[in-house]
UniProtKB/TrEMBL annotation, chain A:
InterPro entries: Cyt_c-like_dom, Cyt_c-like_dom_sf. It holds the Pfam family Cytochrome_CBB3. It comes from the Bacteria. This is Cytochrome c. Residues 21-102 form the Cytochrome c domain. Residues 1-18 form the signal peptide. Gene3D superfamilies: Cytochrome c-like domain (1.10.760.10). It comes from Magnetospirillum sulfuroxidans. The keyword DNA repair does not apply. Keywords: Heme, Iron, Metal-binding, Signal.
Automatic annotation (TrEMBL), chain B:
It comes from Magnetospirillum sulfuroxidans. It comes from the Bacteria. The keyword Signal applies. Residues 1-22 form the signal peptide. InterPro entries: Cyt_cd1_C_sf (IPR003143), Haem_d1_sf (IPR011048), Host-pathogen_enzymatic-act (IPR051200). This is Protein nirF. Keywords: Signal.
């Protein structure tokens, strides 16, 4: 019963899980984060031309704001909109990774 | 490890035994994810040694001492590391800031300067001892600390650089190292993001991200101030997204012409250096990052931002048209020509290899394994202004 409840409730509580990127896609996203985001934000995410993306800094910001920043960019800064290359599910997974919530 | 040791040993032995070694055909390949360098030689296209322990090498760059014996490596994490090219080892290292973006060596070779993001400014070190000579905080006219970009060496032991946040160009004069002098040019434009100095050391040019155009300072006539050229150079009305900041380093003249990577658009701009006007655009396969003239100026090699970073295009300069598109691997980050241009080395980050190409036939002649390679820097840079 408990298991049934969990499996029905979880997708509601975390809608992003419904469209979790595939294992292969996660690998691509992880490489993109390290290498391509790393070009501006540093491979250790301590910042560069772009602001720091440390776990502490990311945890201070809401998921929706971060997803929006990834997909739509930040006007007035070099941060481009990535929606041509990333889906919303991709962006949600990246936000979880940035906050240290993925394995 | 064994190969590293034996290579280092060979180099060492070379210094005292029958085979003497010079450094003119040596270079360093940055393995950005591992804080490691591969020492290579470009006569036979081989790897000689590995040097580890350099910290965060994302966006790392290298300059060389005038005798080509030593390399100075600028790491992202603020590390400045001095490498002995004959012994293939680290001979000096300072953590000089929290976050840096590159550097330059002075005309006389006695000083190495580093551009810093955090805290924003320029630090200058003695190239022998790595002792601090000058520490210049980049406080703009707005009173705020600014990230420093586009640090270049200019004739007269001057370093030129730009303040990204404040929109200024500064000249740091170190003719007398005991009393550094700073000359500031404020209001040069919005968000200078990179800069170059022309091969002759005369013009310092900063590309602007926040608006169109290039801010240019004539170092022969600094009293004339900074003027704006190429008003149409930039992101334009639509302000297209830019997936990797273009680099201006490859600027070189072929006759009257120079070439610039467009910002956001899939084009290379052709500039007439006598009038500083745009005289053409060449359609290319993606957003260009480096547009580098082959020594001699006959061909231009261009790499691209994600998602087109698996391609490199070769442009024929006389006809201003794309001659060939090659695919040297995944995520091509940088290219470096041999000193007289018969070969070009290309780093393919996601293929974990560096490939070497014959520039006349545009065919691959060698491949060297390297872990996540980014910048490639040959010692011939020692004798070029701005590199």
């Amino acid at each position: 019963m408990k298991r049934l409840l969990l499996s029905t409730l979880l997708p509601l509580a975390f809608p992003a899980w419904a469209s979790e990127p595939s294992a292969q896609r996660q690998q691509q996203l992880s490489a993109l984060l390290d290498q391509d985001c790393g070009s501006c934000h540093g491979m250790t995410r301590k910042g560069g031309l772009g602001s720091p993306l440390t776990m502490e800094a990311m945890r201070e910001l809401g998921d929706e704001a971060l997803v929006a920043t990834i997909l739509d960019g930040r006007p007035g800064t070099p941060m481009p909109p990535w929606k041509l290359m990333l889906s919303e599910a991709d962006a949600r997974w990246l936000v979880r990774r940035l906050k240290g919530e993925t394995p | 490890m064994k190969t590293i040791l034996s290579a280092a040993l060979l180099l060492l032995l070379g210094a005292c035994a029958p085979t003497l070694r010079a450094t003119g055909d040596l270079g360093l390949v940055v393995e950005r994810a591992d804080g490691r360098l591969k020492m290579v030689e470009n006569t036979h296209s081989t790897t000689l040694a590995e040097i580890s322990g350099l910290g965060d090498l994302s966006h790392a760059s290298v300059v060389y001492s005038r005798d080509e014996r030593f390399a100075f490596v600028f790491g992202r994490d603020g590390g400045l590391t001095k490498i002995d090219m004959l012994q293939a080892r680290i001979v000096g290292r300072v953590m000089q800031s929290g976050n840096s973006i590159g550097g330059a060596i002075s005309q006389d070779g006695s000083l190495v300067a580093v551009a810093n993001y955090t805290p924003g400014g320029v630090k200058v070190f003695d190239s022998d001892s790595l002792e601090l000579v000058a520490d210049i905080a980049a406080i703009g006219a707005d009173g705020k600390s600014s990230k420093v970009v586009g640090l270049e060496d200019a004739p007269g032991n001057i370093f030129a650089f730009s303040l990204y946040d404040a929109g200024e160009i500064w000249l740091l004069d170190l003719k007398d190292r005991s009393s550094p002098k700073v000359r500031k040019f404020p209001h040069i434009g919005n968000q200078p993001y990179d800069a170059l100095i022309t091969e002759d050391g005369r013009y310092y040019m900063a590309g602007l991200f926040g608006e169109d155009g290039i801010a240019m300072l004539d170092l022969w006539n600094p009293d004339l101030g900074v003027r704006r050229i190429l008003d149409h150079y930039g992101r334009g009305q639509e302000a297209l997204p830019v997936y990797k900041m273009p680099h201006l380093e490859g600027w070189a003249a072929s006759g009257n012409l120079a070439f610039l990577p467009a910002i956001g658009r899939h084009e290379v701009l052709v500039v007439d250096m006598t009038s500083w006007r745009e005289v053409g655009r060449i359609a290319v396969a993606g957003q260009p990052v480096f547009a580098m003239l082959q020594p001699g100026g006959r061909r231009l090699w261009v790499n691209f931002a994600i998602p087109d970073n698996g391609k490199v295009q070769v442009i024929d300069v006389p006809s201003l048209s794309v001659l060939k598109t090659i695919e040297p691997g995944l995520a091509v980050l940088h290219l470096e020509f041999t000193p007289r241009g018969e070969r070009v080395w290309l780093s393919a980050r996601d293929s974990d290899q560096v490939t070497v190409w014959d520039t006349e036939t545009i065919t691959q002649v060698a491949a060297l394994p390297a872990s996540k390679p980014s910048g490639i820097f040959f010692t011939a840079r020692a004798h070029r202004i701005g590199l």
